[in-house]
Structure formats: C-alpha cells, structure tokens
Amino acid sequence: MNDAPTMFAAVRWPRLAVGVCLTGALALSIHIAMVQWLNITNPTFDSVFPELLNAAVMTCAAIWLYGCLQAQPGIRSGAMRIFLLFALLACLNGTVRNAFMTGYCSTTTPLRWFFGALSAVRPAAYFAAAAALTAGACQFRPYWARLAAGVAVALMLVFVVSPGVSMMERAIYAQLSDLLPSAGWCKQPYGVDIMMAAYATTIEPALASFACIALVWRHLPGRPLAQTALFVVLILALKKQLLSSFLYPFFTAGPVLMALASMGQLTLAAGALGLLTALFWRWAQRRPVAANA
C-alpha cells in the first residue's frame, strides 16, 4: 500500500474555499486599483529579448514543477503529467478567463463568444507546447542539462511556436474579418457589470495557484516563511513576471517610473496571488493532534 501523503489530506475544505475566493479577488484588486484609479496603462514589449528571458525563466520553473508531478503518487502516466502541467500553466495565466472577458467585452455579434474562444487558441497552444517540451527536457538527468534544455525550450517557444501560432491566428481572422466584432464596450471607468465578471473569473488562476501549492508545498525546502517566499517566486516565474518589472523600462519608450508602474502592477498582482495562496493554504491546514503522553 502506498502511504505517501495525499495533496489535500490535511485540508479544511470550507477554509480552503474561502481562501480561493479571497485570493483571486484580492490579487485582482491590485490590478484594478492601479488601472482604474491611478490610470496605469497595460504594458507591451517591443523587443523579443524580454520575452525570451521570461520564457526561459518560466520553462526552468516548469521543469521543477514537472519534477513534483513525477514524484506525486498516482500520477504515473507521462501524458497525464503533461496535461496537468499544461492545465496549471494555462490556468495560472488566465487563459479561459481572458477568453471569457474577450467575448464578454466584445460588441454584440452572433460570433462574439466564438471569437472569445478563438482568442484562447494562441496561449493554449503556447502552454501545450511548453508542457510537452518541458517533459522532454526532464528526460535529462543532470540538473545543468535540464537547465540547458530549458533554455532550448524557451528558444523554440519564442522563435517557432509563437510565430507559427500567430500566423495561423492571422489566417483565421483574415477569413472571418467580416464577422469580427467592431469594438469592445468595456471602457474605463469600469462599471459594476464589468467588475462582477472580472472578479468572478479570477477563480481560474486562484484554483490553479492552490492546485500548484498542494502539489509543491512538501517539496519546498526550509521553514514555512522560506517555503512561502519560494512559492511566490515560483508563481512569479510561471506567470513570466519574475524579471518583467526590471526588464520593461529598458525596452519601452516613455518615463521609467511609468514603465515600472505599468509592468509592476502585473508583477504585484502575481506576487499577491502566490503570497495569499501560501497564507491561506497554511490557514486551511488541520493542526496535528498531539500524541498522548
């Protein structure tokens, strides 16, 4: 009989449910506050180098995460591990949420939800390729070889996968150009209807973050404080936010402080997601019962 600890064996489910909801809402509130009240714009990179570096960091973090999947009892199928890694990457980065909000905020057309779903094809293909290539990189035994393979995976994602999927996406949109929604109606300042949809859909990255911590917590070294810090770093890496705030000011035009605020709001939200997940995960754990003397 396998006596390895299960991921959710010591969890108080009501507390965990509260933690999931509050984590998603509070993490999003950072982004909403900076965009809605401080008029901070969303960032856009003009150089491939930051994307390559962020992809390399994400891939190296995914390699470690895949190792945790390999160590998890009951997940013996390589295909299942690849699927779970894909699901964690895609959901942490809000693939379904972004697709829903794209359709929700589009002008009313018969195909608004189709185009919303179509917007998920590019990130889904990217994360599917990342998961499959990461699994291949994990076949190398020496850790330095895995890291080198991670860099190779990042190169493939940036220079092969992304351009290929973008080309396919442009071809589809060109064929359906007459049916495209003309413009979105979700304008600032956001109203209650937009806020409700935005907050409700934070359940996706929040659930993915809690699934991630359930998988990796016992593999993180050190005491709870160190484990929490390492988990925040992991989430930042998987969401490609670990280095973004430091890189963005050097690869965009405009004032440095505005660039820091633009990317920083996403980094803060991602960091809050990881931190709150760790705190609520600890809060949801059952306290061990002391043995009788």
TrEMBL record:
Keyword Signal: no
Transmembrane segments: 16-40, 52-69, 81-101, 113-136, 143-161, 197-217, 229-251, 257-281
UniProt keyword Transmembrane helix, yes or no: yes
Keyword terms of this UniProt record: Membrane, Transmembrane, Transmembrane helix
Protein's recorded name: Uncharacterized protein
Upper classification of the organism: Bacteria, Pseudomonadati, Pseudomonadota, Betaproteobacteria, Burkholderiales
